[in-house]
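Lab notebook, bench 4. We co-purified these components, and the gel suggests they stay together. Before we commit to crystallization screens, I want a quick structural picture of the whole thing.
Request: model the full complex, all chains together.
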Amino acid sequence: STLRRSRSGSRHLLRRPFASSSAVPERKVAILGAAGGIGQPLSLLMKLNPLVTHLSLYDIAGTPGVAADVSHINTPAEVKGFAAEEQLGQALEGADIVIIPAGVPRKPGMTRDDLFNINARIVKSLCTAIAKYCPNAIVNMISNPVNSTVPIASEVFKKAGTYDEKKLFGVTTLDVVRAKTFYAAKAKVPVSEVNVPVVGGHAGITILPLFSQATPATNALGDEEIKALTKRTQDGGTEVVEAKAGKGSATLSMAYAGAVFADACLKGLNGVPDIVECSFVQSTVTELPFFASKVRLGKNGVEEVLGLGPLSDYEKQGLESLLPELKSSIEKGIKFAQAN
Ligand code: NAI
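Here is the predicted assembly.
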């Protein structure tokens, strides 16, 4: 039966070399902003990831407590906490992946771009340290506005002579997570089977879920329902910001999404084939220098940036209307990095 086959399938998985602790390659993951709303649950989830051998937790406030707490969990990853700026180098040295959820989150009424002035500076200083202490690491940028912070990181790395476009990722996984959840509920399909690519960027209308490519496919959804699903995905962050009423933005779902994306990067590094996730990366898919689309991950980070595939007329329109906003957010980031 299917059940028996899937059971023996998972037993087989356990015997694969990377799943047994002795054969796991050494992988150090550093989280910058580890004591924050996202950083804490993300630290927890990365401590649970069997592919992580060293977990480095850095924040300018509160790290010792978070590191001590997480370190008591009886999983193999060895946890170290780093608190003050003079410890940032140690936190980063030897890192294979650096995840950055450092910075301020939105409050009701704010757009992601309103965070620009504070977060641009934080991202710039952290990326300067990455260029110095772990220039070969894969960077997972969570700090908003992602549409601008990723271009800032690229400029910092270019200036330092360490830029590798295959290793810089804007984390847009939460948009995919939301699109999957909302689609599954509306289409009445099992959420664990759902896949929905989300392309463009990571703010408002620049978030473009491609429900025409969603699987399992359904013809139960009409144009109005697709529009509503698109809007809810684009406004998912705001839904949480408003519900938290001044106490920040998505942290738990974001930590989950960040952990999913980092796990995909780790699998890619370890040579697991066919790892595909959507991410905001350097791209030639459109005329813009950065764009989110499906990306195949490999031993060097990006192995292949995949195209958009066939779009519905509604999605084509969405693509046209997002390009100018995304372009200006990218340029804003580049300008900031060049001027500062
Ligand atoms: P938070 O305020 O709870 O935590 C941020 C942490 O960063 C704090 O612990 C703070 O001490 C730390 N920090 C500040 N400056 C730092 C520096 N120079 N070095 C190291 N750590 C530093 O904020 P939260 O809710 O965790 O959000 C963090 C960021 O993630 C925000 O920019 C937010 O907009 C973004 N975000 C991104 C999402 C995405 O989908 N990419 C989704 C949700 C939030």
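The two ends are 63 Å apart (CA to CA). Worth comparing against the SEC data before the next meeting. The longest strand covers residues 290-298.
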